[in-house]
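Q: What structure does this chain adopt?
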Amino acid sequence: MLVGILKEIKVKENRVCMTPTGVVTMIANGHQVLVENNAGVGSGFDNEAYIAAGATIAGTPAEVYERCEMVMHVKEPQPSEYDMLRKGQILFTYLHLAADEQQTNALLKSGATCIAYETIQKKDRSLPLLTPMSEVAGRMAVQQGAVALEATKGGLGRLLGGVPGTDPARVLVIGGGVVGTQAAKMACGLGAQVYMMDLDLDRIRYLSDIMPANCFIKMSSRQAILDLLPEVDMIVGAVLIPGTKAPYVISREDLALMKDGSVLVDVSIDQGGCFETSKPTTHEDPTYVVDGVIHYCVANIPGAVPLTSTMALTNATLSYAVQLANKGWHKACVENEELKLGLNVHDGKLVYKAVSDAFGLAYTPVEEVL
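A:
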């Protein structure tokens, strides 16, 4: 199979979907790889590194789309790419369709087979291709939130860990999954007083055992969140329902309870955001203010640390990409339940129910296309 590696064109997105080492593995499995010109430069991999690995360099994205049977990205295709996708082509990338009706309709129109990193799921319900980027995003969320708290950035001017004789910042993390756990660990490591909430009692017991002493685990509820809003300096939203839109856990009216200059970091923004006042931002212009509260809602947080992120992502995606190339999408999805759950769109049909529910679009059970 001819596999295409596309250059990311989302604002300030420096990751690439496959390292040169990944290319070596694809070629060892009998495939050819076409890499768009300078696709890996932002992550520290120049064209020569890919050529040395056995890839061929393409001059334009149109060439990659035109020639390749499977194309890979990190982020979702941008509007300028929609018309390049074609019937029968495999698209393998993060899609987050439940928060993007325009993209959903474009992929349906294309006739392509679209497999989403973020809905591939193991038997234990873990999300193996979302996990590495969630680990990065959780840690980065606290770093970026700490910067936003600085007075020079419009924040209330509090250092997360304080210093002797002063109080540390108080941080609330809503969601005890991978993002939330990594965010809480980072905030605790910096010396903050951290509150962490989740709805799963078994998860709460587990987190209570493993988290540092300055992390206080609570059962999440509307009232528990409201009680903490006047006290906290930063909130990290880490709410995820796989494949569907994130629910709001803080409303516009709730902001009145928060301190001026406090910070909301919405890591759920890819799935529509978990704060009512959230809207996607970019690394170029990452924050905005609503009712005195700073919002950080960058939709591709790991793109700021592309060297780490690209290697972590390739480690997770490569085995699935090899399966798709070796077997074709149909046989790979039939034989691997995890990949089957990643199938969102095929030949104009929406085969992932949470996305159809989000927009009221016609749904075709995945078994019908397999």
